[in-house]
Amino acid sequence: MGSSRAAPGTSPARQLTVVDPYATGGTWYKGNLQVASVRGVGKDLPKTLGAWYAAHGYAFLGISDMNTYTWPEEYGSPALPGVPTVGVTYPFADVLAIGIDHWLPAQTLQRAIDWIAADGGLPVLAAPLSPAKPQSLLAVMGLHSLYGLEVYDARLALGGAASADATELWDRLLSAGNRVFAVAGDDATGVNDPAIGGAWISVLASSDDSLSLLSSLRRGAFVASSGAEFTDLTVAGSTITAEALPGSSLRFIGRGGRLLRAVSANSGSYRVTGNEGYVRVEAVRDDGARAWSQPFFISWR
User: Fold this and answer.
1) Which of 2, 156, 187, 274 is the most buried (most CB within 10 A)?
2) Does CATH place domain 27-226 in 3.40.50.720?
């Protein structure tokens, strides 16, 4: 019988590890965590928004009213569970506080992130490239305890892709060693807003109740989308395999935003070599719509 014990005087062989955020499996649930009702800056009642999302195939919703907690009981239903969310707004930045029911004042973005995390919430930097509150690369790179970055904002996309798409900023954060997840949202103000339905997240969870959804969100078991959709993301050994809906192609991307492999089909794999830092996958629909997987972090142990 062979032995894995290292010979005297030698170091044990290091093992390549691919951290899979989707390892626990489950069912994909589509939802949105960024939309405003009349409780904030929106135009429609919470129940009107809930009815729209339920009718359009969404499995959960979080209404992120500005510095106001809108109770899930006002818009949720057995068919559309509500996820506690607050849109925390400051003169210097907008932040989504996911999983909590309050907001607090803060003098800096870092302090806003700190209190959300300390109170058990998930702090997401929203619309980081918004012309109204643009975030400098230096400032964002200096943040710590940031849970998520909104890589796509459907409202900003109506005015052009430049301010809507923060994928490059996300890659800079990941390449610097930050473990930050990609989020996308409508940022809509009502059911007649052209932005509604333009971006979402899909969570891989054991069920669609808020506790299960939040548990999966904390692990990074979700994807962000502007229209494309993954149907499977798996890891076997050092090989990452992705599958998207027909009419899509795949891009495997590593540290620095470097393209590792392009697949001109809706299913494909990438074998990790160990120097990628992380690998994330994009599904690109034929019309340009995208979906972003969370990063598969690479390490040697």
Assistant:
1) 187
2) no
